[in-house]
Amino acid sequence: MNSQDVILGTLMDRSLTGYEIKQLFETLYSYFYSSSYGTIYPMLHRMEKDELLTKESILQDGKPNKNVYTITEKGKKQFNEYLNSPIEAENVKSDFLMRLFFGEYVGNSKVIEWLEKAQIQIMEQLDQLKDLCVLYKDKMHPSQVICIQIGMKNYEAKLEMITEGLIRLRNLEQEERD
Amino acid sequence: MNSQDVILGTLMDRSLTGYEIKQLFETLYSYFYSSSYGTIYPMLHRMEKDELLTKESILQDGKPNKNVYTITEKGKKQFNEYLNSPIEAENVKSDFLMRLFFGEYVGNSKVIEWLEKAQIQIMEQLDQLKDLCVLYKDKMHPSQVICIQIGMKNYEAKLEMITEGLIRLRNLEQEERD
DNA sequence: CGTGTCATGTAAGGAGTTACATGATTTG
DNA sequence: CAAATCATGTAACTCCTTACATGACACG
């Protein structure tokens, strides 16, 4: 799975601009993929050159011009090949979890601070996903439902453990004061 | 968080070889970090040059020689600076979830195949984590306990949703046949 | 009147992976 | 006897991020 595969998949059911693709990455895809404009725009150019996509420039007044990309037959074929290739291992880099792992080197109050910040952030992410879930509810394929449910359940699992952990750490702090 | 930070943290409580560090990445750290020998060995060299680590070569018979690395005061200071820097956003690339998201383009039986494979794999990962949890149980810092609990709960959440999803998809397949 | 949104793009650099090379010993 | 384990290392390459540049309109 690389940016090309994700872009191909994204354009399978409708044509989009680079900007709109990035928005999808930040919302609907946020729990399983991310990449920056510095990846997306050059990749779209390359994919057009490789005839996986076609570009249509749309002049707008009041707003900057758009480049709307549409997947070609060749692009669809390529995406299909990807879907039939072996699944790659998940790749996670979680600074938050790593800090928790090394929490013994910073003291309880700092760990509590980290947990509280994470709690707020994850709540926001979960809310965003829930909203999207309501929005797309009836248009979603069963497979997509499973995907988004895993995403939500993951956030919920994290929140649960953070809440439990906070209780334990706050008790420890209290005991120290006594 | 980059490979240097993770290596520094790993060497905080004991000296290790590159090979042993990699083993930790693959087991204890597997749910929040990974990297290859191609990252680890050159990074260890660089960190020794930068005086963050010292190297001790140990000659073994029957086995290849070892380079055991120990963190220096400078290294500890650097790790402390990292711990006091702002936490970076989590970065996930999950090929599995992305395929589920685009599952409508492959048909139910393929999605079921993906889910079944993932189920087995995640069960193994969860078992591994559980074993480690038992092994380190009494030596773990409260913060580390939270970390590993999040890891386990995450796997459990995924398994739960996969099981539910499989039931739904198998019913759909059955209905189609009728 | 500043901040956010819409919209695209590039250049330089960083961080990492893959594939290869070596080689003895242990395990099934 | 093959495969896995122990153990280190490099070179080529890929992919991606960061930081910058541009510019108009809308909102409060």
Task: Summarize the entry for a quick read.
The structure is a homodimer of 178-residue chains. The first copy, chain A, is mainly alpha-helical and 178 residues long.
Write the layout of secondary structure elements.
The structure is a homodimer of 178-residue chains.
Chain A: H1 3-10, E1 16-17, H2 18-26, H3 37-49, E2 53-58, E3 66-71, H4 73-83, E4 91-93, H5 95-101, H6 108-136, H7 142-177
Chain A binds a DNA duplex (28 and 28 nucleotides) through residues 2-3, 17-19, 35-39, 41-42, 45, 60, 62-67.
Domain Transcription regulator PadR N-terminal (chains A, B): 7-80
Pfam families (chains A, B): PadR
Protein name (chains A, B): PadR family transcriptional regulator
Strand order of the largest sheet of chain A: 1-3-2
Rg calculated over all Cα atoms of chain A: 21 Å
Q: How many separate domains make up the residues of chain A?
A: 2
What's the total helix number of chain A?
A: 7
Shape of chain A: elongated
End-to-end separation of chain A:
54 Å
**Quaternary structure state of the chains depicted:** homodimer
Q: Biggest interface and its residues per chain?
A: A-B, 65 and 65 residues
Give a quick account of the main beta sheet of chain A: strands, pairing sense, barrel closure: 3 strands, antiparallel
Organism (chains A, B): Paenibacillus chondroitinus
Domain Transcription regulator PadR N-terminal (chains A, B): 7-80
Pfam families (chains A, B): PadR (PF03551)
InterPro entries (chains A, B): Tscrpt_reg_PadR_N, WH-like_DNA-bd_sf, WH_DNA-bd_sf
